[in-house]
Design goal:
six-stranded parallel beta sheet; binds nicotinamide-adenine-dinucleotide; alpha/beta
């Protein structure tokens, strides 16, 4: 099929590349000329495992092209995906300016019938409203369909190629069939293709994210309670997870969720509820709990320094909002950095991929370290914020030598508190029982 994708970010670029890889002719369109130029020259503006190689191969083979010219980009396409951002607006709701602008531009450049597919996460009613707005601009027939994306950054290619399900919201069976044909190669393992109305498809995406965010805030609240009652959330987690009604997934306590989706999507649902005169009490609580949880490491660290971190050096391992991405949108690490800088601490940071993005915000206010061990040199404490694999099994003896004080605040519960105490660390996880260090320091 001939496909155009408008918006070449985390979702658009992965979608375009995977669709090209399955044999379609794809043009990826973006308004940011520097991004398009970089892609045209074989570069990839974001980090996503496996993506660069796939982009290069499909571009080389002529199935994947990049342009800033929307009119030219969509000219031959049968399907035009919209994958632009839908960030949080000033009122908490999704800001749809990008969707409306792209819809208008598509309508102005529509010379043959096409199916416009909204892949961005959008409030219920957006498909219908886009169709209405486009029909004011063009007489050429078109369809608007919803096809929410469920991929996870860090595993986006795998998720796109082997989705748990594909959800499509369309009003005409022909459109369902067209999208069914497109996704058939990705659903060979009997994964379901679920057709519904655009409204139900739009809602499905939000409900999925609301439930996932709820699980995170739930387990974080329980972890905080565990800590105060000397129960260990890790034991509790295992104690509940074997119940098949509960399971293990997405029930890891931590430093709160961040990223470009959960925070804004939860607030978009709160706003959607308000717009029809009701209060989404659960989502408001999920958001509140999460905001408070983003401060959990700050509270612990400042508590350790008895409220005075002036002149202390704190190392941070992990800046991206989760491992295997360079995305720092709403990342909990940024909240910690701000608090530490405000408290007068000096901050040494390491992340395998996100440092360039963090540098853009903080410039020379932080000390950037290429290696994890470099970051902890002469630090008075280490905070672990993102669970990159390389932090899971470090050389603790080396760490004891490098840290000025053997203090670790582990926002991802990577280590065993008893072992850490035995080694001589002052160690605090999230919702773990805090043991006294048993080794004699310096012995
Ligand atoms: N990132 C994820 O993991 C993920 C997962 C599922 C769904 N989503 C949803 O997908 C959508 C896109 O998310 P993203 O993370 O890929 O965003 P992104 O910010 O990485 O990418 C959006 C791209 O759209 C481009 N753009 C904006 N306006 C444009 C215009 N008028 N014309 C052409 N290009 C334009 C931007 O330059 C940018 O490159 C959002 O609605 C998001 O909620 C994201």
């Amino acid at each position: 099929m001939k496909i155009a994708i408008v918006g070449t970010g985390y979702v658009g670029l992965v979608t375009g590349t995977c669709l090209a890889e399955s044999g379609n002719d794809v043009v990826c369109i973006d308004k940011v000329a520097a991004k398009v130029e970089m892609l045209q020259n074989g570069g990839v503006p974001i980090y996503e495992p496996g993506l660069a190689e796939l982009v290069r191969r499909n571009a080389r083979d002529g199935r994947l092209k990049f342009t800033t010219d929307l009119g030219q980009g969509i000219a031959e396409a049968e399907l035009v995906f919209i994958a632009v951002g839908t960030p949080q607006g000033d009122d908490g709701g999704a800001n749809l300016n990008g969707i409306w602008a792209v819809g208008r531009e598509i309508a102005e450049n529509l010379h043959s019938p096409k199916t416009i597919v909204i892949k961005s996460t959008v409030p219920v009613g957006t498909n219908a409203e886009l169709a209405r707005r486009m029909a004011e601009v063009t007489d050429v027939p078109f369809d608007v369909a919803s096809n929410p994306e469920f991929l996870k950054e860090g595993a986006a290619i795998e998720d796109f190629n082997k989705p748990d399900r594909v959800v499509v919201g369309a009003r005409r069976p022909e459109v369902v069939e067209q999208l069914g044909d497109l996704y058939r190669p990705f659903l060979r393992t009997e994964r379901p293709f679920l057709a519904m109305t655009p409204e139900s498809a739009e809602m499905t995406k939000y409900v999925a994210n609301c439930l996932l965010a709820t699980k995170i805030s739930f387990i974080n609240e329980m972890a905080n309670l565990c800590e105060l009652y000397h129960a260990d959330i890790n034991d509790v987690r295992r104690g509940i997870g074997h119940d098949q009604r509960i399971g293990f997934s997405f029930l890891f306590p931590g430093v709160g969720y961040g990223g470009s989706c959960f925070p804004k999507d939860i607030r978009a649902v709160i706003h959607m509820a308000k717009s029809v005169g009701i209060t989404s009490r659960m989502m408001e609580a999920v958001d509140d709990v999460n905001q408070a949880q983003k401060d959990v490491l700050t509270r612990k660290i400042l508590g350790h320094f008895e409220g005075n971190a002036q002149g202390k050096t704190v190392a941070i391992w992990g800046l991206a909002f989760k491992p295997r991405t360079d995305d720092i949108r709403e990342a909990p690490a940024l909240v910690l950095i701000d608090a530490l800088l405000a408290a007068g601490a000096s901050v040494r940071v390491h992340d395998p991929e996100a440092i360039p993005n963090v540098k853009e915000i903080y410039g020379d206010r932080l000390i950037y370290c290429d290696r994890p061990y470099g970051a902890i040199e002469q630090a008075d404490a280490l905070a672990i914020v993102t669970e990159w694999n390389e932090f899971r099994n470090p050389d603790f003896e080396v760490m004891l030598r490098l840290l000025r004080q053997p203090v670790i605040f582990d926002g991802r519960n990577l280590y065993d508190p008893a072992q850490m105490a035995e080694l001589g660390f002052i160690y605090q996880g999230i919702g773990r029982v805090v043991p006294e260090p048993t080794a004699t320091l310096g012995a």
